[in-house]
Design a protein that fits this description.
The structure holds 2 protein chains of 2 kinds.
Chain A lengths: L2 E5 L2 H6 L2 H10 L5 E4 L16 H17 L3 E3 L3 H15 L2 H11 L12 E2 L1 H17 L8 E4 L3 H4 L15 H8 L3 E2 L19 H18 L3 E4 L2 H9 L1 H7 L8 E3 H9 L24
Parallel strand pairs in A: 1-2, 1-3, 3-4, 5-6, 5-7, 7-8
Chain B lengths: L3 E6 L11 H9 L4 E7 L5 H14 L3 E6 L2 H14 L7 E5 L1 H5 L5 H19 L8 E4 L3 E5 L3 H12 L3 E5 L14 E2 L4 E2 H14 L3 E4 L2 E9 L2 E8 L14 H5 L6 E2 L8 E2 L2 E2 L11 E2 L5 H5 L7 H5 L12 E7 L1 E4 L3 E3 L16 E3 H8 L20 E8 L14 H16 L4 E6 L9 H9 L3 E5 L4 E4 L4 E7 L4 E7 L1 E6 L1 E3 L3 H8 L26 E3 L9 H19 L3 E4 L4 E3 L9 H5 L5 E8 L2 E8 L9 H5 L5 E3 L4 H11 L2
Parallel strand pairs in B: 1-2, 1-3, 3-4, 6-7, 6-18, 7-10, 18-29, 20-27, 21-22, 21-27, 22-23
Antiparallel strand pairs in B: 5-30, 8-9, 11-12, 12-17, 13-14, 15-16, 19-28, 24-25, 25-26, 31-34, 32-33
Helix pairs in contact in B: 1-5, 2-3, 5-18, 6-7, 6-15, 11-12, 12-13
The chains are: A alpha/beta, B alpha/beta.
C-alpha cells in the first residue's frame, strides 16, 4: 500500500541544497511512498527562535495545522525543520493555554491546530516506517565495496526529551540503512558525534570551519570511501565548504560527501544524473558511482 | 454515665498560635459527660502527665480525651500516663488539633471552631470506649539474616554472640559479598580480605549460626516474633557434606578458563565447576548449571571429567533444589547493592573499548589474588599503562540516571590512586575527572590531602566524550575551575559508576511486604530516628540495601539492626496491640470476602455445627492480625469489627463532629 506524506522542504532545500530534494523525490516513490506538495507551507520557524519565540511557534504550528487539514503526516527531510516542528508539537502538547492562543490567531485562515499528526525525518521514515527489509527488497545495485562514515547532526538527535528520531549518544539507524543498501559502515568511530560546525558560522566562522575540517580530516585518515549526512546545514559545511575547511587543518581534503537519499537512489537503480550528484561540490566522482 | 477529662495542649505555640486554647478548654468543660477540662503548655511533659494523673484521681475520671498532636506522635505516651493514673490505657481518645488543625490553617477563629468539632467528636467516642487487654505472643528466639556480605556477617555474629540462633541466607555459593572483592579499604588501607576472612571463618565455625549459601528466601508468613520462612536451596550438583574443597573438579572441568568470573567482574575466567575465590566460606565447589556441558547438553565428553576426578564421589548431577522451612522471631535484610552497568552511557566509551573499566574491575586487577596476580595491565594489549584517568560520578548525581551520590566513589578512587602509585611508581600519569570530592568521614579529608601530594591531575568537570583511538583513549572535558576545554590522552580509563539497588530488591521487598523509596532502595521507617527499622515490625535493614554507604557505616548499621532484633528476641513474649479485628459470628454469612482482602493471611474459614447444620464462618488469628482494617471495610454484613474503632463508636463520633 502506498504511504502518503506531505513533503516539507523548508528554505535550505528549495534555495540551495537542491540535491537533497531531487534525490528525495526520485528515490522514495520507488519504496511506495507518495510525496504530496501542499499549498501554504511557510518557513518552519526555527530561524526566528532567538528573536521571537511566539512567532516561531506560530509558524511551526501553522504548518502542522495545514498538514492536519489535509490529513497527512509531515515528512521534513531537513533536520532543522524537523526539530522546529517536533519541538512545537512537544510544547503545545503540555500547554493548553498557549494552544488556545495560537488557534485564536488561526481563526482568519480557518485553520485549527490539534497536534494529531506525526513529523518524520528521512532517517526514521526509512528505518522505522518503510523498514530495512522493504529497502533490501528494492535494492538493484548494492553499494558493494564502499565503506562510509555517517554523520547524524545535532538537530536529529537532540534534545532527547522532546523525542528525536535517534538516540543522542549512540545513533545507528543511518548505518543500518547503509548496510541494507550493501555498503559497509562502522557503528563507531571516535569523531562520529562531532559537530559539523554549521551552527557557529555566523559568530565564530573560523571555529566553525575548524570543526568541519577536523572531522573530515579524521574521516580521510581512517580511509572511508566517503561521508554520508541527512541535514542540509551539515551538508553545506562538509560538501560546499570542504576546501576552505581543509585550510584550517592544513590538509588537502578530498572526502566525497553524499546525502543518504543520493546513495539510496543509486542503490535502488536510479540513474546518477537524476540524483543531483553533479551539484555536490566534494569529489563524489572519484567513486565512479552509477557508472554502467 | 462516663466521667471524662479533656486536656488541651498548647504545644508551645504550635497549637496556641492558631487556636484559642483557653476558649477551647472552656467549651469542652460544658460538653456532656465532661467533668473536668484543663490546658497546659506541653501536655506530653512530666508536668502535663502529672496534671492528667492528678485529675484522674481527683475527679474519679474513667476516660480521657487529649487534644494535642497526631496519635502517631504521642498516643503511646498518653496511654502510659493514664495507665499510671489507674485506668485502662485504651480508654484514651486523642483529638488531633495540631496536624489536622493549627498547622493546616491560619484563620484563628475558624481553626478554633474546627478544634471544637474535633474535641466534640472525641468526647462522643470516649463515652463509648471499651477497656482492652493486649494479648501475649510467644517469641521464637531465632533470627534470619538475608544476605551474607559484611552487613549480614556482622549482624549474624552479633546476634549469635548474644546467644541467639541465626540462619544466614546467601544467594551466591559463598559469603563475603562485595567486600571480599576489594583489595584495600579506605582511608586506613587495611587489606580487605585480611579483616574480612577471619569474620567469615567465625561465621562458618559459630555453633549458633546455620549457613544457607546458594539459597534464596521464597516465602514469608507470620508476624513479629513468629515468622515462618520458606527458603529455596539451589542445587550445587555437589554434595557439600562430601566435598573437601580440593579443587580437582575445577582443574578437570572441560569449561575451565572459558567462563567470565562474576567474582572477578569479568576480568578473569573460571570453569563450570568453580569456587568464586580461594577463601570462600563454605570452602565448597559449585557446578554452574548455565554453563556446565553435562547439564546444558546432557553430554560432556565420554563422561563428565569432574565426576571422574572427584575422589570423594561428591558430584551428583541428579541433585534437586530443596525448599526448607524455618521459624524465626526477627529478620534482618542485608542484600547490598549492584553497580550501574555503564554500557548504556555511551559517552563514557565503556561499550566501545576494553580499556575503559570500572572501579570494581580495577579492584580485581589490583588484588594480588585477582586474575593478574595484582599486576596492573591494560586489557587490550596486556601492557603496563603509562597514564590512567579516573572518571567520577558515572551515572551518579545525574538527573537522567541516578540522582543520588554513591558516597564511596571519591574515596575509593583516591584509594586507587594511592595503590597505583605504590605499584607503578612515578612513571604513571594519573588524572581524576571529578564533580566534587566528597571526603566527609573520619580521617577521609586527611586521606584526600595525602593523595593530592601524589602528583595527581585533578580536572573538575564531567567528560562530554570519550573517544576510543584504539592505541589510546581521548577525553574531552571542560574544567570548571579554569573555564577551559581540555583534551586528555590516556591509556586506560576507570569509571566510578553509581550504586543502584540489587536487581531483585523489588521482588524481595514484595515478598517481605517492605517499602521501597523512590530510588528503589529499601525504605527505612524514619530517616533520622528509625534508620534500621522498616514499617513491618520485626524486620530490619542494614547496609547498602537501604542506600549507598561505605563499610564503616554498613558495619555500624548492621550492629544497630542486630541489637534492635535482639530487643525482640530477648523477650519470652510480646504484647500485641489489641486493636485488631473481631467477628460477630451471629452476623457472619461466611462469604470469605475478608479472607481475600487480608494482606497478612490472618483470617481463616471455619466450619461449625449448630443445631445439626454445618455453617461456614471466619475466624481471626489474633497473633497475625495487624489491625489494618481492610476486612472491616470489605465486610458486607458489618460482622467484622475493629476493636477501638467499632462502627458503634465511630458513627456517633462522626455525627457529633458535624452536628
Amino acid at each position: 500500500m502506498k504511504k502518503k506524506y506531505a513533503l516539507f522542504t523548508g528554505c535550505m532545500m528549495s534555495t540551495e541544497q537542491y540535491a537533497y530534494e531531487i534525490s528525495v523525490r526520485e528515490s522514495l516513490p520507488i519504496l511506495d511512498v507518495e510525496l504530496v506538495d501542499i499549498e501554504g507551507f511557510s518557513c518552519c520557524g526555527e530561524p526566528m527562535k532567538s528573536v521571537n519565540q511566539l512567532m516561531t511557534l506560530y509558524l511551526s504550528s501553522r504548518n502542522i495545522a495545514i498538514a492536519e487539514k489535509n490529513k497527512l503526516d509531515i515528512f521534513a527531510p531537513c533536520a532543522m525543520c524537523h526539530l522546529a516542528l517536533s519541538e512545537c508539537k512537544h510544547l503545545l502538547e503540555n500547554n493548553e493555554e498557549l494552544k488556545d492562543r495560537i488557534n485564536g490567531m488561526f481563526a482568519a485562515e480557518d485553520l485549527n491546530y490539534k497536534g494529531s499528526i506525526e513529523i518524520l525525518h528521512t532517517v526514521d521514515l526509512l528505518h522505522d516506517h518503510i523498514g530495512l527489509e522493504t529497502i533490501k527488497k528494492h535494492v538493484k545495485k548494492p553499494l558493494t565495496g564502499l565503506k562510509f562514515a555517517t554523520h547524524y547532526g545535532c538537530h536529529l538527535i537532540r534534545p532527547s526529551e522532546i523525542g528525536r528520531p535517534e538516540n543522542s549518544e549512540n545513533p545507528t539507524k543511518m548505518d543500518e540503512i547503509l548496510k541494507a543498501l550493501g555498503a559497509e559502515t562502522v557503528n563507531y568511530y571516535p569523531e562520529k558525534l562531532d559537530c559539523c560546525g554549521g551552527i557557529l558560522q555566523i559568530n565564530l566562522p573560523e571555529s566553525a570551519l575548524t570543526k568541519t575540517g577536523q572531522k573530515l580530516k579524521a574521516i580521510q585518515e581512517y580511509g572511508f570511501s566517503g561521508l554520508v549526512d541527512v541535514c542540509p546545514w551539515c551538508h553545506r559545511m562538509y560538501d560546499a565548504r570542504q576546501v576552505k575547511a581543509g585550510e584550517t587543518v592544513a590538509t588537502k581534503l578530498e572526502v566525497p560527501v553524499f546525502y543518504l537519499t543520493q546513495l539510496l537512489g543509486l542503490a535502488l537503480g536510479v540513474k546518477k544524473e537524476k540524483l543531483g550528484l553533479d551539484l555536490n561540490l566534494s569529489p563524489v566522482d572519484k567513486l565512479n558511482l552509477g557508472e554502467a | 454515665m462516663r466521667r471524662i477529662g479533656v486536656f488541651v495542649c498548647h504545644c508551645g505555640i504550635n497549637i496556641a498560635q492558631n487556636v484559642d486554647v483557653e476558649a477551647l478548654t472552656e467549651y469542652a468543660s460544658h460538653l456532656d459527660g465532661v467533668v473536668v477540662s484543663k490546658n497546659y503548655k506541653y501536655m506530653c511533659s512530666d508536668v502535663g502527665a502529672t496534671l492528667i494523673k492528678d485529675m484522674i484521681k481527683q475527679h474519679k475520671l474513667d476516660s480521657v480525651v487529649v487534644a494535642s498532636c497526631s496519635p502517631r506522635m504521642h498516643e503511646h505516651t498518653f496511654r502510659e500516663v493514664i495507665s499510671d493514673g489507674g485506668i485502662n490505657p485504651y480508654l484514651l481518645e486523642m483529638a488531633n488539633i495540631r496536624e489536622h488543625c493549627s498547622w493546616a490553617h491560619d484563620n484563628r477563629e475558624k481553626a478554633t471552631e474546627k478544634a471544637k468539632s474535633l474535641i466534640r467528636g472525641s468526647v462522643a467516642k470516649a463515652k463509648l470506649l471499651e477497656s482492652l487487654t493486649p494479648s501475649k505472643i510467644p517469641v521464637i528466639p531465632k533470627a534470619l539474616v538475608i544476605g551474607g556480605g559484611i552487613a549480614g556477617i556482622q549482624a549474624s555474629l552479633d546476634l549469635a554472640n548474644d546467644g541467639f540462633k541465626v540462619y544466614l541466607v546467601e544467594q551466591e555459593p559463598t559469603i563475603g559479598g562485595r567486600m571480599a572483592q576489594l583489595d584495600k579499604t579506605f582511608p586506613t588501607l587495611d587489606c580487605s580480605s585480611c579483616i574480612l576472612t577471619p569474620k567469615m571463618m567465625e561465621v562458618a565455625k559459630h555453633s549458633n549460626i546455620e549457613l544457607l549459601t546458594y539459597s534464596e528466601v521464597v516465602g514469608l508468613e507470620g508476624s513479629i516474633g513468629n515468622y515462618n520462612v520458606k527458603i529455596k536451596k539451589k542445587s550445587r550438583y555437589i554434595d557439600i557434606e562430601k566435598c573437601t574443597g580440593c579443587g580437582d573438579c575445577a582443574t578437570n572441568c572441560r569449561m575451565k578458563g572459558r567462563i567470565q568470573s562474576e567474582f572477578d567482574m569479568g576480568m578473569g575466567k573460571r570453569g563450570a565447576a568453580y569456587m568464586p575465590f580461594p577463601q570462600a566460606v563454605p570452602l565448597k565447589y559449585t557446578i554452574d548449571p548455565r554453563h556446565c556441558l553435562f547439564l546444558t547438553r546432557g553430554k560432556c565428553g565420554d563422561a563428565p571429567s569432574c565426576k571422574e576426578a572427584c575422589l570423594q564421589n561428591a558430584i551428583n548431577f541428579d541433585q534437586k533444589e530443596e525448599i526448607v522451612e524455618i521459624k524465626v522471631g526477627a529478620i534482618i535484610v542485608t542484600i547490598g547493592y549492584d553497580v550501574l552497568d555503564p554500557t548504556s552511557l555511551y559517552e563514557y566509551g565503556y561499550a566501545n573499548s576494553p580499556d575503559v573499566i570500572t572501579t570494581l574491575e580495577l579492584e580485581r586487577l589490583i588484588s594480588s589474588s585477582g586474575p593478574t596476580k595484582g599486576e596492573i595491565i591494560r586489557p587490550s594489549d596486556q601492557q603496563k599503562p603509562k597514564s590512567i584517568t579516573f572518571i567520577l560520578c558515572v551515572g551518579s548525581r545525574d538527573e537522567t540516571q541516578c540522582t543520588w551520590c554513591c558516597r564511596i566513589g571519591c574515596m575509593s578512587v583516591l584509594k586507587h590512586v594511592y595503590l597505583l602509585r605504590e605499584k607503578l611508581g612515578e612513571d604513571v600519569e594519573i588524572n581524576i575527572c571529578y564533580t566534587d570530592i566528597r571526603s566527609y568521614g573520619k580521617g577521609y579529608e586527611e586521606f584526600y590531602r595525602k593523595i593530592r601530594g601524589l602528583k595527581t591531575n585533578m580536572f573538575r568537570g564531567r567528560p562530554s566524550e570519550v573517544r576510543d583511538m584504539k592505541s589510546y583513549q581521548k577525553i574531552d572535558i571542560f574544567d570548571t575551575t579554569t573555564n577551559k576545554l581540555f583534551e586528555i590522552k590516556t591509556d586506560m580509563i576507570v569509571l566510578a559508576p553509581a550504586l543502584v539497588p540489587r536487581a531483585n530488591a523489588g521482588e524481595l521487598a514484595r515478598l517481605l511486604r517492605l517499602n521501597l523509596s523512590g530510588d528503589g532502595f529499601l525504605l527505612e521507617a524514619h530517616p533520622k530516628l528509625r534508620p534500621v527499622d522498616t514499617f513491618v515490625n520485626g524486620i530490619f535493614i542494614a547496609g547498602c540495601c537501604q542506600g549507598p554507604k561505605d563499610i564503616q557505616d554498613t558495619v555500624s548499621q548492621a550492629s544497630g539492626a542486630a541489637s534492635k532484633a535482639a530487643n525482640i528476641l530477648a523477650k519470652p513474649s510480646l504484647e500485641s496491640e489489641p486493636l485488631i479485628a473481631i467477628v460477630d459470628t451471629d452476623l457472619c454469612s461466611g462469604c470469605k470476602l475478608c479472607i481475600l482482602v487480608c494482606p497478612y493471611k490472618a483470617i481463616e474459614s471455619v466450619k461449625e455445627e449448630i443445631n445439626g447444620k454445618i455453617i461456614t464462618r471466619v475466624k481471626v488469628n489474633e497473633a497475625l492480625c495487624m489491625g489494618c482494617g481492610a476486612c472491616v471495610a470489605a465486610c458486607p454484613s458489618g460482622a467484622m469489627q475493629q476493636l477501638g474503632f467499632k462502627d458503634k463508636q465511630l458513627t456517633p463520633m462522626i455525627e457529633e463532629m458535624f452536628s
